[in-house]
Amino acid sequence: MAFCSTQYASGVACICFVAVLWTFATVLKQLIFSDLNYNEPLVLTYVCNACYAVHFPLHGLLRMTKVVSPIPWRRAEAEGSVKNGEVREAMRGGLIIAPLWFAAQWTYSAGVASTSVTASTVISTTSVVWTLLASILFLKEKVTVVKVLGIICCMAGNAATLLGSDKPDQKGQFSGDLLCIVAAMLYAAYTTVLSRIVQPDFSMAILFGVIGVAILVIGAPLVFSLKQEALRRMTPEIFGLLIFNGIFDNVLSQFCWAKAVQWTSPTTATVGLSLTIPLSILADLVRQKHLTPWTYLAALLVLSGFVAVTLASRPRAAESSALREDCEITGSQNI
Fold this sequence. Notes:
Elements: H1 5-35, H2 41-50, H3 55-64, H4 85-114, H5 117-124, H6 127-138, H7 145-164, H8 173-197, H9 204-226, H10 228-233, H11 236-263, H12 266-271, H13 276-286, H14 293-313, H15 317-330
Helix pairs in contact: 1-11, 1-13, 2-4, 2-9, 2-11, 4-8, 4-9, 5-7, 5-8, 6-8, 7-14
């Protein structure tokens, strides 16, 4: 799929913004699990992902205040009727993606609770490999030498991160790492399905709104039956942090993530996960923590890999010229 250069640049900007949000979100999860002694990944996943339902009232408010334009599929057709088929497609897509996304979030949160932050961050970035394989098999994404070398650099950076990190506590380490690996595979499946379903003018508000409502309604019996004691232990402070995490780590970051998938490619967007590693290193520098030469090597490799895949996936000049007229018509994306 070809994209205009403006859309692609916007997609790369979304990737960088999401990487910043996810870096802070991982620290916040550790705060909730460890410092506040609320090690309940299922409850965290349910509350945070149910926050997606806020897309419906938010989009309605923005429409009422004329901050955004009507979504593309509500344009009247030649005979004056309103095209609603794509609204149903957005709702169907949300219902398909909801279980994949919930499972990925649940397994990753459980993994973060059982392993180290470094290990969970490194393992999560391996989803780029699974995403590339899925994109080649199901989306027919073109493979280039530069793209493959970029992915190899990212994976080498991940390995260097593990070599340079302190040895983590082994208790529960294996199960935590295994859960993070499963989460990486589920992220790849989610990203590939998302790319297959959405189109450049697809409304992310409806898609994620449906995901939030589905998790809120369908997940309620699961959470209330399995975690009654955990719900009773929830303090207003913990609930506030869960909502804060849900709004920023889920609602805002995933909206930008979906736009990145729309405007770039699944592989390019997933490689952006690796940017959390150098961002974590930067945070450690600010906090004056000891860093090893392996850590700096990891940051260099990951950044090199991200740049390589980004450049290899950018739209060609000829393709951008051919689509310039379409991009001018649909370039102002609707939320």
